Amino acid sequence: MIGLIGAMNVEVEALENMLEDRKETRIGMDVFVSGKLYGQETVLAVCGPGKINAALCAQSMILHFHPQWILNLGVAGSGEENVNIGDMVIATAAVEHDMDTSPIGDPVGYVSKIGLIEIPCDRQLREQLVRSAGKVPGLCVHEGIIATGDQFICRADVRKRIHDLFQAKAVEMEGAAVAHACYMHGVPCGVLRSISDHANGESEMDYPTFTKLAAAHSQQVVENVLKGAGA
Ligand code: ADE
Hints:
By secondary structure, the chain is an alpha/beta fold.
């Protein structure tokens, strides 16, 4: 079983429409749709925005469905100058940019208990994602840190601070939370993001315009991964 988590409907609806032998399972307020996707047993969920929604959904998915890996997919703001709208970022690791216990001596972003700033993504899955993204014509693919926090970034100075601290290539609101839940349960995890805006003063305008294109790119990559992973 493979697990897919998106924050919003638009990020997963095309994949959900392709599911065969669909079955719905409710756990609390999360709805998990399972079935066959391109020949692979898959469970898919829309977790809602933000770290807590994402972590709870990932944990429920892990405990109920025991997926062999989980991919968090969707859209993100660009984290640095050379990452543009329409590009794809595949995480080497994810960070919680709003985790901050620096007043008591920790580095910004340090997550106590798991003892990490950079929460690692599974290398094998990442390599599969990179190969699959390479098959999408004209798609520019970056690998690096994805920064997650409970805020929509739409100011150049905030984006710069996140980049200065973590060298983030993309900013979003769920990736590190899914990676955190997966890390705690020993489940391999990937984070895949299509860039929908520049996380600056124009974000409010760009986000709705480019989200559909960005979501379509993510879905194409997932299709390639699952087809490649076929028996
Ligand atoms: N998802 C898409 N764009 C984003 C932004 N600018 N900040 C946070 N999450 C996002």
